[in-house]
Amino acid sequence: MSQQAKTFSSSSEQNEMIEPNHHPEIISESNNGCTFSSNKLFSSVRQERNDKFQKESSARVEKVEDVDENGQKVTIQILSGRQDNYNGVNITIDSEIENFEKVMTNSLQYWMKKKKRGVWIYVTSEFSEYIPILLKKFQFKMHHTNEDMLMLTRWLPETYNFDPKADPNKIPKYAQHYVGAGGVTIDFKRNQILLCTERHGRKPKGMGHLDFWKVPGGSVDDPNEHIGEGAVREVFEETGVKSSFIGIMGFRHLFGFRFGKSDFYFICLLEAKSRKIDIDTNEIAKCQWFDLEEYYKMDHLNFVQSVIRDSVREFMSRDEEQRKQMLWSMFDNSLSEKNAALMYHSVDLTHIAQEKAFANAKENTDPSLMYCYRGKTLDPEIQYQ
Questions:
Q1: Model pLDDT for residues 45-78, shown as the tens digit of each residue
Q2: 257 and 290: one domain?
Q3: Where is the Nudix hydrolase domain (predicted)?
Q4: Of the residues 16, 198, 237, 314, which is catalytic?
Q5: Are 229 and 153 in a shared domain?
Q6: pLDDT in tens, 254-304
Q7: Is residue 16 among the annotated active site residues?
Q8: Domain annotation covers residue 344
Q9: Residue 89, in any domain of the structure
Q10: Which of 91, 206, 234 is nearest to 154 (CA)?
């Protein structure tokens, strides 16, 4: 947090900590209060999985029996990595390989005889001299990169099949979406919402000198971070206000967002756990608590922010049971061994098998049990897609 952070409210109540669970009808034991205490568990599971994958796929030169063009048995050297579930080969080049071109030639020929399909080769930056060889001599294609590694791929059936259509290239494209989260942070005790203006954000047309108030939020670009965790973190980083995740109110899907990729922006309902504002002056220009009635009257908002305003007004006008119908608020960590988190609609609680293996649960798909964002039961006579 910046040392030059300013507080945009003179009220002494800004320094108060808010007692937990002022909104008990939403935060329940079944979702562990949505505080995500299992974040470290998810991160460690993911890290262990990555470490295991890299160890298993680390390039090793091994000797195998093969048959040459004259039908004679020979012993050749090939790269040995990790075999995947799709009859593919995963190799991580993280060490020097003697006679690399010869070994690579042997490997490809051997894999094609064995009818292997996709070959994935991860090259660490330390051994980047192998990249042009793989690209130019062995027809690999670049797939994606990060700070210290480049992944290249080759689809072998295109070479050994007489008919390329018999097994077309099924190597998936790299990630196609960005994910962001906005934190609708509400102090339920005082009926107030936390809003901010961005220092470098774009204003809607026609606003002129007016402040463009919005809910705080930002990118969820840590692959180990749950959407709810991302919203809580972004709110704290931008405003200094602590909060806990309640549920997802909805999301926006934007096309052509960045580098030709689309963007999912999840609108998360948060309960304020503190009130003191301490902004990040690099990102935020102003931050303030607003009474909800004043918020509902704001008309200088962009489309997404106006939908959020209407959703908040609708949510706050409903009773306890109707509020449950308007959120995806159930968070289950029983999938932690599978490195996953399951978010589902609270009204489906009685229709989901009460098992730890939620991935195998069967939900009741009766349209009368499905709800729109306004919390109204959909017409069971209509066939919904």
A1: 555 656 666 666 677 899 999 988 888 999 999 9
A2: yes
A3: 176-317
A4: 237
A5: no
A6: 888 877 888 899 999 999 999 999 999 988 999 999 999 999 999 888 888
A7: no
A8: no
A9: yes
A10: 91
CA 89 to chain centre: 26
Verify that 115 and 181 share a domain, yes or no: no
Residue 315 structural domain: 177-326
Q: 149 and 245: one domain?
A: no
Q: What contacts 301, CB < 8 A, 6 or more positions away?
A: 204, 212, 213, 214, 309
- Give the phi and the psi of residue 288 in degrees, each rounded to 5: -160, 150
pLDDT digit string, tens, across residues 341-372: 555 554 444 433 333 333 333 333 333 333 32
- On whether residue 192 sits in a domain, the answer given is yes
Q: Looking at the predicted structure, is the pLDDT value of residue 316 above 80?
A: yes
User: 203 and 317 share a domain?
Assistant: yes
For 70-106, what is each residue's pLDDT tens digit? 889 999 999 988 888 889 999 999 999 999 999 999 9
As a whole number, the mean pLDDT across the chain is: 77
pLDDT interval class at 203 (50, 70, 90): low
* Rounded distance between C-alpha atoms, residue 381 and residue 334, angstroms: 36
**Which residues, 6+ apart, have CB-to-CB distance to 322 below 8 Å?**
375
